[in-house]
Amino acid sequence: MRGRLGHLGPVGLVLAGGISVQFGGAVAVSVMPRVGAIGIVTLRLVFAALVLLVVCRPKVRGHSRADWGTVVAFGVAMAGMNGLFYQAVARIPMGPAVTLEVLGPLALSVLASRRAVNLIWAGLALGGVFLLGGGGGLDGLDPAGIAYALGAGAMWATYILFSARTGRRFPQADGLALAMAVAAVLFLPLGIVETGSRLVRPDALALGAAVAVMSSVLPYTLELLALRRLPAHTFAILMSLEPAIASVAGFLVLSQALSVTEALAIALVIAASMGAVRTQVGRRGAKGAVAAGPVAGVDVGAHAEARTEPLPEPSESHPGPPEPLPEPSEK
User: Cα separations (Å) of 111 from 106, 122, 180, 181, 273?
Assistant: First the structure.
């Protein structure tokens, strides 16, 4: 399978991962009338946690209290990011929701750089936000949906920070698997209370498993394969296209059409994200490092050094992709 996927090329793998994430999100929105936003988040996190725990087989002994504090915080950020995002897409179209969510990592990238040129990227992003409401701010979108999307963006930025710390403290993907389990445990009681017996209906379980595979397992594998042959800053720029992919997924799956003004707004935010990534690369290029960019929950800088070493092949003690990347958003 890895050999066949490799023929797509690294750029094709990244785009395929983004398409999988966003179309998985669109499928999740279509399932919401059956189990609700909290229910679909619960199913996604539980199934993704089960897959990662089986594949990664993380060690639970030998970690310090600080290690566990980091992974728990990572799991809380993951749960908050997913929960808030799905509340947002239950109220506003996917394209604007992902665009607003991207503002969190974008703000983190701009603040981390501390360069005057980043005022340009911030201005572009604010212009995009203004246009999202048809030129009148955000009046054209549900206020609660806007608040949830911005909250998801803040949690996404937090997710990026703890993703880097978790990657430094835990080997392979152990930290990711444990954090996903923490997020699933946090949401499971909410899903049971909110959804009740509907959560275990066969159709809901099947669709929840499909969303988990499309939005978590498959993208991790595709991105891992791509990052073995793709510069980190190029990966970051490609992931900045997520709002555009989300808009296409919303249109094809959910019939959520965008106006010309909304499309221009999304384009401005994408341009701001790409510009912020390029600025970070230019600033740190002389030091041989790539800064974190707004890339679907991935701290590019934290993973770049680890990717310079050959990755081990699957074995009986550690089957499957050895180092999947943290997720997005969507996600």
Answer: 9, 10, 28, 31, 13
